[in-house]
Amino acid sequence: MSNSLLYIFFSVVLFLSACKKDAAKPLDLGYNYIPLAKGNYIIYDVDSIYFDEYESSSDTFKFQLKEEIGDSFVDLTGQISFEYKRYKRFYKPLVDINTTAWYLTDVWYVTKLKNRFERVEESIRYSRLIISNC
């Protein structure tokens, strides 16, 4: 009888020790792929080919595109948003691209909300990242 009581005791201890609740890990919303801090930027090298079927010709453009986070502001919905500035500079023959000036082409804005990341481009709102488990 003492062996069965000992077996039951160890079974209960083992069962209770296995039922510990771990601290809940915070949900990673994936917002780190666009860090919203003034001055953060990314530069892309872009190749563009334009085809004109009417004249049976084509033209190639090579440029750099820079997207930079600007100042923050409170938008019309009361959310904190950031300017999203886009610049271009074109490659020129025999000229170092790093000495070419940037030209501002667009100023959009981005907003990080509880369950999504939005970017407004040319007055059209895009949700680039949506988290459904919030």
Give an account of the 3D structure.
With 134 residues, the chain is mainly β. It has one domain. The protein contains 1 helix and 6 strands; from the N terminus they run H-E-E-E-E-E-E. It has one helix at 2-17; strands spanning 41-52, 57-74, 80-90, 103-112, 116-121, 124-130. Strands 1-2-3-4-5-6 form a 6-stranded antiparallel sheet, with no helix packed on it. The longest helix has 16 residues, at 2-17. The protein is elongated and about 95 Å long. The two termini are 53 Å apart. The mean pLDDT is 83.
List the helices and strands and how they pair.
Blueprint: H1 2-17, E1 41-52, E2 57-74, E3 80-90, E4 103-112, E5 116-121, E6 124-130
Antiparallel strand pairs: 1-2, 2-3, 3-4, 4-5, 5-6
Question: Keywords for this structure?
Answer:
single chain; 134 residues; mainly beta; six-stranded antiparallel β-sheet; 1 helix; 12% helix; elongated
